[in-house]
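Hey L., structure's done. Input below.
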Amino acid sequence: MNYLDVSAQAGARYFSVPSTGPVVMLNLLRFKDKAVFPEGKDPGVSMTGREAYRKYMEYTLPLVEASGGEVLFWGKAEHFLIGPETETWDMVLLVRHRSKEVFLEFAQHEDYLKTAFYRSAALADSRLLPMVAG
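Output:
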């Protein structure tokens, strides 16, 4: 099973708990060999999933920063030292947001939604794990 979007149940569960401050989002990303764009959103050039994700980040990073967030880490994933040998990821991304409410505002922002299709065109599978200081 592949996971590309937040389910209604996961979103309701996450946002029903009061915010406790900054949240760091752990993104595990696996790219498609070739990006597949939705009808009417094709940029007119062929690109790999990795290239489409870089384009997504080009549009998204200024919005993250404008909301007070920051990318803490963006890099190539290695094989697990502890974990399933068959589970692999192409990239890991850590993004800090000021709060889960600010993250929600960012994710619903009109400018973000205009180019979010690059993300879905790029990804074969993903995981998004919100983390807070303990």
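The two ends are 30 Å apart (CA to CA). The first strand starts at residue 23 and ends at 31.

-- N.
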